[in-house]
Amino acid sequence: MNTQAANPRRRRPRPLTARLVIGGGAALLALLLAVTGAIAAYEYGEARDVQLDRAELLARMVEEHATHEFEDAGRVLAAAADVASRVPVERHAELGTAFAQTAAGQPLVAATVLVDSRGLVLASSVPGARGRTIELARISRLPAPGQLAYGGYLADASPVLPARAAVPVLRGVLAADGRPLTLVGLLDPAELARFQRHALEDPGTSAMLVRHDGLVLSATPAAVAAAGERIAAGEDGRFTVDDLPQHVTAARTLASQPELTVLVTRDLDVALATWRRMVAWLAAGAAAAAALIAAMTFVAERSVRAREAARRQRDAAQLAVALRERELSVIVKSVQELIFRTDAEGRLTFVNARWLAATGQPGERLIGQALVDLMAPSSREAVAALLAPSASGSRAAQVSFAGTEQRLFDLAVSPLIEGGRVVGHAGSAVDVTERCAAQRELQEQLALSALMLDTMPLPVALMDREAAYVTVNRAWEQQSGMPREDLVGKRASDYLLPAEAEVHERHNREVLERGGSLSYESEVSQADGTRRTMAVTKAAVTDADGRPRGLIAALTDITEFREADRTMREARDIAEEASRAKSEFIANISHELRTPLQAIIGFSELGMVRGRAHELLASMFGDIHAAGQRMLALVNDLLDVSKIESTVGTFHLERTDLRPLVREVAREIDPLLARRRLHLDLALSDGPLVAKVDPMRFQQVVRNVLANAVRFSPDGETITVRGDVDARNQIVVAVRDHGPGIPPGELEKIFEAFVQSSKTKDGSGGTGLGLAICRKIVEAHGGSIQAENADGGGSRFTIAVPARGFADTVV
User: Fold this and answer.
1) DSSP characters for 75-110?
2) Using CA atoms, how far apart are residues 715 and 675, in angstroms rounded to an integer?
3) Is the pLDDT confidence value at 3 over 50?
4) What does 486-539 look like in DSSP terms, one character per residue?
5) Residue among 279, 197, 269 nearest 51 (CA)
6) Residue 723 near residue 710 (C-beta atoms within 8 A)
7) Quick one: pLDDT at residue 236?
8) Taking all residues of the chain, what is their mean pLDDT, rounded to a whole number?
9) How confident is the model at residue 584 (pLDDT cuts 50, 70, 90)?
10) Alpha-carbon distance 329 to 323, whole Å?
11) CA 239 – CA 614 distance, rounded (Å)
12) Which of 396, 483, 562, 769 has the fewest CB atoms within 10 Å around its CB?
């Protein structure tokens, strides 16, 4: 292959004849375009100059008319000023008629008024304006006597000309008494614009009358600025009209009024219509000429190119071959496999760069060596079989190279056949060491997983998308009574009872459709014919896309658990029934005992009253009365216990503040405190202590605890009662006494029925039911009551119930 074909960046130069043809055609087109553009530009400049001259002429016409109009207005004001200066001050009111007659022949002057320095109208050509005030500050500065000044545009010339626009012209006047006055002439801007519209009949032409500071006094409807607006005024007296790139503007300053300038603008888009039509015809002719030149150039260039077509095709074919060779070379160098070619005897004639990493030898040293000699001894026989001349088609074997026996390669060889005989071999080798190691590790993991599954005590099964068994463990075989080989491929409906199979099939469909996992209980028949209660757990096995491809099921035998649960429920029902019967019995017997006790107590009280004269008889009745009271207290306590434990006991809960309840109980025990000379220190929270309680029952708890504190406190001591809300949002009422205290081992036992502290078994205690009743009442309110020994002696009883504010909602 020659050097030119091997280098794709080089191109055979275009023949000189084709270049000349293309260059000549391009030059003719460029010349045609240049001539056409030059003609169009020249004609555009001529048309623009004509429009500018036209604008200058129109500006001169409007300026002459405006000069004439303002000179007439000035003469009107001069005549009015002469009259005003000669008329006495007291006759100024009569000047209105004279002003109207003076301006009668001048339509530009809409009104004439005479004002003093404060703007008070002394005389006016408009009836009704005299006596009103004009704001001179918004019109203009006041001129000296005999001087003129032009005011700004007034959109509303009130009070002289209400709702009418006007341009004020001021002239200073010296009154007959020497006082300076001002004569104001209100010019009609519509009258100025009327002539401008008639004078500027050309389409796209507009005019404005502008004061030296840029204020527009009058304007035609199509003007760039309306009357009363401003345009930019330069220091040199020139005006700048923005946003008019396609307009020409001419300006003329009034000869007699240098403060005023006329601006005339002409729209080139409208005025240059003739030039556009000419340019359109010129462009059409140029396009036709360009098309002709292009066609001639194309025909000439195609005829020249036709002679070189064969040579270009040959060069393109050579270039394609060179590119393919380069691409193949790059692919062979970059591929990760070992690529080689041998001759008929099996000697290497080509190897790629990857052979250096596999054999440790560069490719130059490998050329000419026999492929069999490069292999490990254990692989030479397999490689020789691959290179045998009698072998046909592609062959493959797993081999290793000498010196690197620990690495494995998949070697593939194909014979090169020419003229019906084998002239060599081509092949490749891929390093599969990591893949083989991964396969071995995977097999080990699968074997371990299968062993773990098979040794699990729980029955486990794997099913496919059709809910057919793929595999089961040994526990499943034992549970079903069928070997694994018989279960694989079957569904639950193939060996279970129809009722059982329907349950399992329904849950299988649910897992396969929705994914995830579920659990349920079912009765399952065993191999021995018994039925066991099973907790079944099933979970979907998903693929890489998260779609279920099967499911796994596990069984847990919960038969004994359900039997124990049933037995426990039955025992609980029996215990509850016994407790209920006991409570009802106590309630009934307590009611039956109270009737004779009331009679005993009543007759003993009667005997005490009538036996006062007989000390022995009164003492005997007193003993009977005390014994009856103790018996009645015991019966009442038993009745309270029975009410709380039985269904007869009822709590009427309501949300209430506990502070009044505690204070009421404290007032009840005042006689007991006074009898023992005890002091009650009551300290309750300033804020409400709101809880949902039965008021009577809660007072019963507080009363019992306080009564115990009074009973066991030495004479003259202090009993402390505290009430507040703790950090757990509980209302805590604590009662602290200075009695004998409670042994630590009895702090919980004293809340059991009929149990008293060992320190109070000397007869000072009660029946042993009071604290048991208190705990049952407090726990029924969702609270707690505890006892502890206080520092310094005595005990502390703490009552806690959940706090509920008045705004809380209790469900």
Assistant:
1) HHHHHHHHHHHHS-GGGGGGHHHHHHHHTTT-TTEE
2) 9
3) no
4) HHTT--GGGTS-HHHHHHHHHHHHHHHHH-SEEEEEEEEE-TTS-EEEEEEEEE
5) 269
6) no
7) 59
8) 79
9) low
10) 10
11) 140
12) 483
C-alpha distances (whole Å) from 673 to each of 155, 273, 523, 742 are: 101, 123, 71, 22
Q: Helix or strand or coil: residue 612? A: coil
- Which structure tokens are listed for 285? 């002719």
Q: CA angle 120-126-129, nearest 5°?
A: 30
Nearest to 473 by CA among 530, 552, 531: 552
Q: Is 527 exposed, middle or buried (0-12, 13-18, 19+ CB in 10 A)?
A: exposed
What are 201's two structure tokens?
């009949």
Burial status of residue 30 (CB atoms within 10 A of its CB: 0-12, 13-18, 19 or more): exposed
CA nearest to 66, candidates 177, 213, 248, 210: 210
Residue of 788, 669, 784 whose CA lies nearest to 719: 669
- The answer to whether 305 and 21 have CB atoms below 8 angstroms apart is no
* Residue 468 DSSP code: -
Question: What separation in angstroms does the CA of 513 have from each of 390, 462, 517?
Answer: 58, 17, 11
Pull the structure tokens for residue 336: 């990760």
Percentage above 70 pLDDT, the chain: 85
Amino acid at position 359, single letter: T
pLDDT value for 807: 45
Coil, helix or strand for 207? Answer: strand
Task: Find the angle CA(524)-CA(529)-CA(532) to the nearest 5 degrees.
Answer: 30
- Given the DSSP bridges, would you call strands 679-684 and 718-725 parallel, antiparallel or unpaired? parallel
Query: 409-418 and 395-399: which strand pairing?
Result: antiparallel
Buried b (16+ CB within 10 A) or exposed e, 547-566: ebebbbbbbebeeeeeeeee
Give the full edge-to-edge strand order of the sheet including 718-725. 679-684, 718-725, 730-736, 795-802, 784-789
Q: Who contacts 225 (Cβ-Cβ below 8 Å, separation ≥6)?
A: 208, 216, 219, 231, 241
Beta bridge partners of 519: 537
Distance (Å, whole) CA 614 – CA 347: 148
Please state, as a whole number, how many other Cβ atoms lie within 10 Å of the Cβ of residue 809.
5
Q: How far apart are CA 225 and CA 293, in angstroms?
A: 51
Separation of alpha carbons 296 and 731, rounded Å: 111
Tokens describing residue 137: 């500050």
**pLDDT for res 271:** 61
Question: 137-169: b or e for each residue (b if 16 or more CB lie within 10 Å)?
Answer: eebbebbeeeebbbbbbbeebebbbeebbbbbb
Tokens 């375009």 belong to which residue? 33
Q: With beta carbons less than 8 A apart as the criterion, state whether 149 and 138 touch.
A: no
The one-letter amino acid code at 44 reads Y
What does 339-361 look like in DSSP terms, one character per residue?
Answer: EEEEETTSBEEEE-TTHHHHHSS
The 3-state secondary structure of 279-297 reads: HHHHHHHHHHHHHHHHHHH
- Number of C-beta neighbours around residue 51 at 10 A: 23
pLDDT-based confidence at residue 706 (cuts at 50, 70, 90): very high
Q: How far, in Å, are 103, 535, 787 from residue 458 at the CA level?
A: 124, 11, 51
pTM (whole model) above 0.90: no
Least confident of 307-316, 539-548, 589-598: 589-598
Question: What pairing do the DSSP bridges indicate for beta strands 531-542 and 548-557?
Answer: antiparallel
- Alpha-helical regions (H) of 230-308: 268-271, 273-306
Residue 199 has pLDDT above 60, yes or no: no
Query: What integer is the mean pLDDT of 490-519?
Result: 84
Q: Omega into 744 within 30° of 0, i.e. cis?
A: no
Highest mean pLDDT pick, 461-465, 542-546, 607-611: 461-465
At residue 153 the predicted structure's pLDDT band, cuts being 50, 70 and 90, is confident
Neighbours of 530 (CB within 10 A): 9
Whole-angstrom Cα distance, residue 234 to residue 239?
6
pLDDT (tens digit per residue) in 737-760: 998 888 888 888 888 877 777 766
CB contact at 8 A, 363 and 351: yes
Cα(717)–Cα(637) distance, rounded to whole angstroms? 28
